[in-house]
Amino acid sequence: MHGRPRKPLKPVDEAAVAAKAEKLRALQSEFLSNHQNKIYSKEAVELSAKLLEINPELYTAWNYRKLAVQQNLAQCESDPESVNSILDEELKVVENALRQNFKSYGAWHHRKWVLEKGHSSMDKELGLLDKFQAMDARNFHAWNYRRFVAALMKRSDEDELEHTQNMIDKNLSNYSAWHNRSVLLSNLMKKAAPGFTSKDEVLTREYELVREALFTDEDDQSGWFYHLWLLDQTVRSEFPLLVSSWPVEGSDISLPAADYLDGCASMNVFHYSSRNFPLVLYFNQSVRGVNSSTVSVSCGFNLNIDLIWKPLSSTDSQSAKVWATHLAIPDAELHSSEAYQVEVKVGFSQGIVSTTGVAYSHPSQISFQLHLQKTPLESGQDSRFGRIQWKDDCFAVYEPGSAEPDLVNLLDNLTIKNEVESTASTWQARIIDDETNIFRDLLDCKIGKLTVARLLTAYNSLRPLDKPVHCKEVLELYSELMKLDPSHYQYYKDNHSLVLLQQVTSSKESLLSRCFHYRDSTLSTNGSPLCLRLNNLAISQLGSFEKLLWVQMLDLSNNELQSIEGLEALQLLSQLCLSNNKFRSFTALESLRYLKSLKVLDISQNEIGSHSIDTTRYLFRSPLSHSVGSCDWNINYLSSETYWEAFFVLKDMGLTQLDVAGNAITSKSFNVFLEKLLPTLKWLDGVEVN
Amino acid sequence: MEFNPPLLTSSQRTLSLFPLPLHFPLEIRTAGEVEFPPPPKRHAPPLQQALNTIESTLVAMGELAADKHVKYILAVEKRKDSFESAVLEHLRMNGAYWGLTTLDLLDKRDVVDSNEIIEWILKCQHESGGFAGNIGHDPHILYTLSAIQVLALFDKLNVLDVDKVSTYIAGLQNEDGSFSGDIWGEVDTRFSYIAICGLSILKCLDKINVERAVNYIISCRNVDGGFGCTPGGESHAGQIFCCVAALAITGALHYVDKDLLGWWLCERQVKSGGLNGRPEKLPDDTENGGISDRPDDAVDIFHTYFGVAGKTVAA
Q1: Do A491 and B8 make contact, defined as CB atoms within 8 angstroms?
Q2: What secondary structure does DSSP assign to A626-673, as a single string?
Q3: Which residues of A touch B9 (CB under 8 A)?
Q4: Where does residue A465 rank: exposed (0-12), middle (13-18), buried (19+ CB within 10 A)?
Q5: What positions does the domain Prenyltransferase alpha-alpha toroid occupy (chain B) (predicted)?
Q6: Which of A268, A434, A519, B69 has most Cβ atoms within 10 angstroms of its Cβ?
Q7: Is B82 an interface residue toward A (CB < 8 Å)?
Q8: Tens of pLDDT along A259-286?
Q9: Chain A contact for B87 (CB, 8 A cutoff)
Q10: Which residue among A7, A173, A623 places its CB closest to the CB of B34?
């Protein structure tokens, strides 16, 4: 019990306490009887006041008083003096109750209910609030009540902002005041109130204000969260923009001449193995309204059907950062000698809107070429792979040759240039630079290191077309934080991973150095796909997906991943290795449901099924979300109830190869279940399926 | 057997009114949207395994901690003459939920007489369909959820007129999607959670306007990633729990900035290892026999519940 020491009661105290309890019970019993019988006499009402003074939490008594007030008001409608005295009495009862417990929900609500009847001077209310806030500046009831009174009094946001300033001046460590300041400022900026139209000026002022709090006591959290919000406001991109796409602008796509089940790529041109290939649009923030009216796709041949664009989000059926559609190329249309120019025009008509309500107003155009592959693969050869093995000796370093300008061109053009970004960034870069210099003075403490790391990362986010700077320093800072503050290790690790991936994907040289040919003795080198290997990097979180939309084969083995959220953007993925990570459930692999091209999957040597109750299921995504269609559970599968999570994630996948060994869920019956679930499966845990 | 209310000081009642879901996440479903195979029944192998793990964890601590907790809970029930128990009579329905769920987590549910409890619960129901905190008191959404949860605990939801109760709850939704606690109109996101949780247990989530309910909760989201009780209200761990849980049940978790909120929440852990509810506030809940909120403070059933539940999640 809060604030009560552990002590056994002395016998004489016990008797006194028992008598007190008995008296209280008698009062309560009488009150309940009055309430049941709707008795609102003066004595009865006074009884309730007495009770509420002892126990302001007795909610029924507040209800009773409201009924009594209603009845009494009805009886003296015409007499304003009586009305006032009735309401005054209520306010007094509330004050008495609040003195007993100034956190009583019932008391505060009763006061609001009385005020809404149009009584009490507002100055009096503000005076009362000042008293309460002097006693406890963090009492959120008082702050809520203040908001209520300010609205009722129609006090301006500017005046209330000044009040928060006063509170902060009295005590810098007042999270409640900073919080309220953030609410008021957001409103003022949103409605572009005079004096609050220049984000540059407003934010500069606020940074100065919070600086004192931060340097007075670096352990005090109050200012730090406010500072984090200011940083977000500084770098947040106002406009929804297209950041990257698949295909990349200017690329050359070759399609198989005939209907292969799965083919392999020649690296002479970028090649996609199916006739049904994806278009992917990657935005800088979540948007809705991407459809065939707002995005037009024109090819040399007619696609009679309107394309259906889907948001790649497992939680939201309306909006997402990444949208995709599939072009189905009709056989009859294509001639192997022609190259077809495709143009994708994004946002030339209105309709795309960010989830924060900002319209998409910077149209983009992406052009690429499509042509048919002239001949099928070496005739007589089975186009299918043997089993993929993710071993080091199966990979040979990719040697770019002069005949392959396309991959290099592709990697050069991964990020779409948006003019609007370069003009806005001057004041933002200046602020971040200033703040970074200031906080370098605090590098000996946890929050200083974290803030500098965040500032340097923010700086890079302002310049998406340039190579990120200070990566080494940021990585070092996070490494130091992992040691300095081990209770938040995972948070720092995740951020470290994100920066590492930014660094790796920041240049074409870096990406090329991680591209490998997969060697299979059954195939000539002409036919081997290109694999991006991001294994053994100790990464715990994935990011930089906008740089990876082109990837078909990906090795993420031997890392510390617990989730692959975001990977659904990589619509071309056909071979994926996730072995030796820290996946604990199939729900963590839910993004796989969106990878329609996935054929080869290795999730061996993880921790799937190690917890009998999946405690992360609700954290990743509720299975009750609106976007989930109903599943047909009436399938004659063995143990589909036991393995329903695996069923849900894997059921529609056309996997040809799957590795699941080395997980807690691994068992003979699970493998039997998998074979039934995936009729296309040829290899399961290295063994050929009958 | 009458169940005495838990011992709480009135000044901390704010924290007491955050009912937690039962069997989270196993039992929570919504009607119509998605059909999943029935979750493993209570005490099906995986759950029993989990409970066994908890028990063995507690035993392995070197003391028969579980038995001590049980003894404490039953003792609370018997202390009718205390002043504290009189002052908390009105929220006995909550106390029943905390005490019984704790017993359940310790697999000692059978030490109480479920029939007596259920009989008492039904006496607390009003003609409006809502439940009061105790016999003779007014109905409120808070106690309605506790009643549903206790009945679910005993697998006795069938004693309810589901239509009546769900209509009461749904009737408390306002135009803007928010929920009032009762007919007197107090609005708080706690009540949004209670309505959504309660109706999901009863499988009648479609009786409310889910989209508006979600929109209201979003309007209470703050710049630090957390949630308050009303729009503009300061972030508080208890409110965050309610809002995040409500968004989880309604499939709207994408509105939560996981990284931002995650950071705010893990900053609740203070040097002593305890957790506070807001920045620069005191931490709560340390364990010592029955569980108190801080070492040297008196134990109470509310914190016993959270302490045991916390150990369960950690196990």
Answers
A1: no
A2: TTPPPP------TTTTTTHHHHHHHTT---SEEE--SSTT--HHHHHH
A3: 1-4
A4: exposed
A5: 64-284, 286-310
A6: B69
A7: yes
A8: 443 444 433 334 555 667 789 999 999 9
A9: yes
A10: A623
Q: What's the rounded Cα separation, in Å, for the pair B44 and A28?
A: 45
Q: Is the pLDDT of residue B7 over 90?
A: no
- Residue B15 CA to residue B34 CA, distance in Å, equals 34
Give chain A positions within 8 Å (CB) of B20: none
H-helix or E-strand containing A517?
Answer: strand A515-518
Task: Enter the tokens of residue A75.
Answer: 């009886």
pLDDT the model gives residue B61: 41
Give the model's confidence band at A290: pLDDT under 50 very low, under 70 low, under 90 confident, else very high: very high
CA A170, CA A164: separation in Å to the nearest integer? 10
pLDDT tens digits along B223-235: 999 999 999 999 9
pLDDT category at A70 given cuts 50, 70, 90 is very high
Task: For the beta carbon of residue A607, count every other beta carbon within 10 angstroms.
Answer: 17
> Cα separation of A324 and A290, whole Å?
9
Say yes or no to pLDDT of A305 above 50.
yes
Count the Cβ atoms, other than its own, within 10 Å of residue A182. 21
**Is the reported ipTM for this assembly greater than 0.95?**
no
Chain B residues within 8 A of A232 when measuring between CB atoms: 223
pTM of the predicted protein model? 0.82
Which residue on chain A is closest to B302 by alpha carbon? A1
- Does the distance separating the beta carbons of A624 and B250 come in below 8 Å? yes
Q: Pick from A109, A29, A3, A50: which is nearest to B89 by CA?
A: A29
Are A222 and B37 within 8 A, CB to CB? no
Q: Which two tokens stand for residue B134?
A: 């105790």
Q: List the one residue out of A585, A574, A589, A582 whose CA is nearest residue A654.
A: A574
Question: In a 10 Å sphere around its CB, with 0-12 CB exposed, 13-18 middle and 19+ buried, how is residue A402 labelled?
Answer: exposed
Residues of B in contact with A321 (CB under 8 A): none
Amino acid letter, A565: E
Euclidean distance between CA atoms A55 and B44, whole angstroms? 44
Instruction: Output the DSSP codes for B155-183.
Output: T-GGGS-HHHHHHHHHTTB-TTS-BBSST
Tokens 């080091």 correspond to what residue? A392
- Amino acid A269: pLDDT: 37
The CA–CA distances, whole Å, from A637 to A656, A673, A687, B34, B104 equal 19, 7, 21, 19, 34
Contacts of A474 (CB under 8 A, 6+ apart): A453, A456, A457, A499
Chain B: residue nearest A112 by CA?
A: B186
Cα–Cα nearest to A568, from A316, A275, A266: A316
B86 with A57: Cβ contact below 8 A: no
Tell me the residue type at B252. Answer: A
CA B127 to CA A604: how far, in whole Å?
58
With CA atoms as reference, the chain B residue closest to A185 would be B223
What is the length of chain B? Answer: 315
- C-alpha span between A354 and A358 (Å, rounded): 5
Token duo for residue A449: 């290191």
Q: What is the rounded distance in angstroms from the CA atom of residue A417 to the CA atom of residue B108? A: 64
- End-to-end CA distance of chain B: give it in Å, rounded: 33
Partner-chain contact A5 B296, CB within 8 Å: yes
| Structure-token pair, residue A521 | 């003795």
Reduce the DSSP state of residue A178 to 3 states and report it: helix
Beta strands (DSSP E) in A418-464 are none
Q: Is the pLDDT of residue A622 over 80?
A: no
Torsion of CA A617, A623, A624, A626, to 10 degrees: 130
Listed in order, strand segments (DSSP E) in chain B are: 286-287, 291-292
